[in-house]
Amino acid sequence: MQIRLKGNYQPFLTGLEQLAEEQNVSIEAEGIGLTIEKNTDEETVISYRNGEGIIYYGKPYHVYRAFGLFIERLAEGQAFELRETPQFQSMGPMFDFSRNAVMRVDQLKGMFRRLALMGFNAAMLYMEDTYEVKEQPYFGYMRGRYSQAELKELDDYAYQLGIELIPCIQTLAHLEEFLKWDAAAYLKDTRGVLLTEQEQTYDFLRQMITAAQEPFRSNRIHIGMDEAEELGRGVYLNRFGYRDRLDIMLEHLDRVIEITEGLGLSVMLWSDMFIKLASESGEDQYNMETEISEEMQGKIPSSVTLMYWDYFHTKKEDYKTLIAKHKKLGQTPAFAGGIWVWNTFATKYDLSLKTSKAALQASKEEGIQDVFVTLWGDDGYENNCFSALLGLQLYAEHQYQTNVSTDHLYRRTKFCTGLEAEQFLLLSQLDNIPGVEEGNLDQTNPSKFLLWQDVLLGLFDKHIEGLDIGSHYQALAQKIRSQRKEQTSLDFIMEVPEKLCDVLAKKASIGIELKQAYDSKHFDVLRDIADNKIPEIIELVRVLHAAHKEQWLTINKPFGWEVIDIRYGGLIARLQTAAERVNTYVRGEVSTIDELEQERLPYNHQVANSTGLGWSSYYYRIASPNVFFHVLPIY
């Protein structure tokens, strides 16, 4: 398809050429005419008739989405007219680059092209220590940190696609990965919290904030400050004595704002600590009964934008109640939802779509202007952000529609990603296995714990006892395979889920089989498990490992992959040990296998009362109940 641009297209030409190439469209002197002109209001109008198209845009970033819509509808071969009005001032994803997976620059540029087609005008880069601070060589050391030049390159690229890149950093807590170095010990209150009330800390923060904002055009910065429950309870307590956490936090915030104002920056920060500290327990940010006192209402500087984050509620009314509490703090907050790509190989679309729809409707009705969608990478980011694209598309469509139909969402997803919506939805089935009730909203991640759990220890075996898990994963592997199209650029993200299903079809219940055969003294079954089934699982794990490595190195810098490498290596070593120990028992060289003598208890003791199959956030807890590392006191 050839398109001939007309009108006021010059400011957008570079970005449009990038998107045209992405969609196999060429911008030529000959072709279908497309006129681009500024509208008198914020409404975007896209039309085509009699061989000519026109885009009237409200804001510059609308042009890129409109260009995609024009190409998409043009393929239908009929005249059309579309009208869209933005619902929010800014809308974008937040990419987590602090949990080992730091995206390669070329891959992040590819993501920006998709975001522009979807219609996003902002994106946050969450970087706890993964950006360069020249005065601090250990800051992001060996963690794949972005150089100043890389961030400038990314900002330039995003800008030409109408996307405002915003640094999202931490200025109080969540700094464990820097504070672990002895070179940073003088800055530490507790493991992850900075020591306030000392000038060295604010000298360091000035270095951080300056480095974080320099590569970006945006004058907005997110300074974090969430989940700082340990504030004032480590070195601070020893040095300065006990003080109320709210007082410490507010004084610290004032000092940070002095720095940001000096740099001409507009500040956002997470709201959870303020809502928690207003609650009766001092810990619950989602307590619907929490009352915001008059004293609390006047404490937060008016220059700061609070960001309310919530990935859990499925009812619009709950969001509206919590937004109202934020308003009592003195302002309408920004909002951050989430697509659950974290702590699992499965992207939890069942939960993500329900929570997001309710949150977006509430945000529209409550006058929220800035909406972001988080893609966290907790516990090493075994998943990847491209698997969240269906969820991102939902947010994008809500930016331009009062209500979004499923058909519209699915059609736009196919155009912007090249994948069918059903392919993304299949990812949820990695965790929605037999034993998980329909409509389950409890956190559950069997795709993670069934892969990494030890077959001799069987920490999660009680969770799946009596369930036909293998058949589920075998059928799911075939479903994923049948829908794949190698010529699609994002098809590669389906390789790991497919190969994971192959592994879990064989491994998920092998610990139960092993324990039952041992208790019944079925030596033939034990011999078969040791000589045939476990070696087969090992080979499937090797295939999965290779696929996962290729996916990681395609998307991300290599730093952090060593963590996942070690997990696979440990899994294979433990499978080999299991086979060896079973064979020594079968040959009569030992009289017992101590691990199989142990009673099996559920990992989550209340799992029977949930609608899921249990949950663990951490690999090291899944792999063993024994000591991986010794955790010293919090300071």
What does this structure look like?
- By secondary structure, the protein is an alpha/beta fold.
- It has three domains: 2-84, N-acetyl-beta-d-glucosaminidase (Double Stranded RNA Binding Domain); 90-417, Alpha-Beta Barrel (TIM Barrel); 431-623, N-acetyl-b-d-glucoasminidase (Four Helix Bundle (Hemerythrin (Met), subunit A), Up-down Bundle), CATH 1.20.120.670.
- Helix content is 44%, strand content 12%.
- The protein has 24 helices and 14 strands.
- It has an eight-stranded parallel β-sheet with strand order 9-8-7-14-13-12-11-10.
- α3 links the parallel β7 (90-96) and β8.
- α6 (199-213) crosses α8 (245-262), α12 (349-365) runs parallel beside α13 and α20 packs antiparallel against α21 (523-555).
- The longest helix is centred in the C-terminal third of the chain and has 33 residues, at 523-555.
- It is globular, with a radius of gyration of 26 Å.
- The termini are far apart.
